[in-house]
Amino acid sequence: MKKLWETIKSYIWWTHQRGSFHYDVMVTLILLFIFVTPHFINYKDRPAERMPRPRSVLVIPDGTNGFIFRVDARDVTGATLAEQQAQILRVIEPIAGYVKLDHWTPEQDTKGELVGYRVWVKR
Question: What is the pTM of this model?
């Protein structure tokens, strides 16, 4: 029993020489833990959602602890205002992190075609 306790203690304090049997056992146990446990334990981590890169986003500070984003109209295709707002936030949040949408307005060119949105956000 004393021999078993000494072996456990030596594993805890990592006292074995590199290349020895016990050292190899410890390294193997660590590698097994790293690569096998994610199959049995849900660590609640997921890969980042891959979204298509926005075509064009311009960021301008508004001078009052906020930002004005100019988002290309091709990145926002929602039919309703709620869908458009969600898509605008989906384009802005990977760039700015979590932000609160203050307000937004559509931008048109000289022919009246929609070219983008001007979006005011606060941190």
Answer: 0.54
